[in-house]
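Sanity check

After download, print the first record. It should look like this:
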Amino acid sequence: EAASEAIVNAVAFECGRNYLQPDDRSDFLRSDRVWHSELRHCAGHRDAEGDGGSTQCPGSRLYAFLNDELRDRVAARLAGNQAPSGLTSQLNGEILEFDWDGGSNDSFHHFVEGWWRWIEDGTSHIDYLTAHSAAFADHGWSADQPDGSGWSGETVDGTSLDVAVVAPGHYTLHVRKAGDGFSFASHETVLVEELDDPEDPEEPELHTVDGNVYDHETDDPIAGATVTLDGDDFFASLLTDDGGEFEFVDVPEGDYKITASADGYVTGSFDIEVRPDIEVTVLFRLEPEEEEGDEDNDEVAADALMVEALSGTSHRSGNTWTAVVTVVVVDNLGNPVRDALVDVEWSGGYVGTSTEVTGDDGSCAFESGPMHNRDQTVTLTVTAVEHEHLEWDEEQSESVIDVRR
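Expected structure tokens:
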């Protein structure tokens, strides 16, 4: 009994000066960064089972004493107020937000400790991120009920506390009810692995959208055509050069409608996506407007089809990239052609999809095989277009597009 009483005294002293409720549990992180989940405050070796250091010591009788008597006798010796319940934490940016249960008029003492372990030349070092265990001054525990004097934590009204995270590391909040008598504390540990640097925000990636505008019937470039690029947060308009070329630069990521118009031509437009690691090329083939006296298209039956437009994008994936080309097929009246069988070839032996069927909008897409991630150009050539009722007008078709990386 004398030995048992000595154990009770020793454990009560440690629980008292650290405000540990003997029958409660806490998470904590060892200096070697092994995480212990809900380890009991008064623990035997067996309670650490699964962490690589457990043994069968102490023996069965002493372990039974720990579970059946020790925690209850220590709790009775300390006879303090219960620890606050429901203590939780959440990292919001560089602020650790702690919350716990309590009355609206209650006040609580709190203390935050923090440290980070680092290794240099095989030697382990600890940097303290806040005031640490030195602030747990001896509060004068004795066999009489301890009065809690010496607790150095500040007082907070309410049931929440925000703590600024100064660096990556291990942070523990200890919180207990304020008052004259002794009160147990609740303990919540958080490991902050890394922090974002708000002073160095990542610049958004900008892209290029380029292409050409041609006359659909003659294949001549259309100089001075107006091309507009319209998105949620970006709008730009420019004129094509003498070669019918255009280029938009510094285009942010997003979904856009790109439109080409010129005097004497029917306006054309596409919906395009601008995404990271994508360069977009769009080819417009504008139909000349009908002159007065031309026959009404409604009275003319379609008898031919052609490739009206090709648009290409590049997609990066790790150390490779692929090209994707959209082919648009229309009939000689300008209507989208469904169920046209389109065959293509890729240059450079980059075998990819080579046969597709157009959908309701007259379009289908082809993807090249993977290529090394370096600046280069791959060419897609339309080799044949077949349809049950319409003949392919190859001379009036757009048939070749280069996709750049």
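If your output differs, re-run the checksum step. Summary of this record's structure: Residues 23 and 71 are 6 Å apart (CA to CA).
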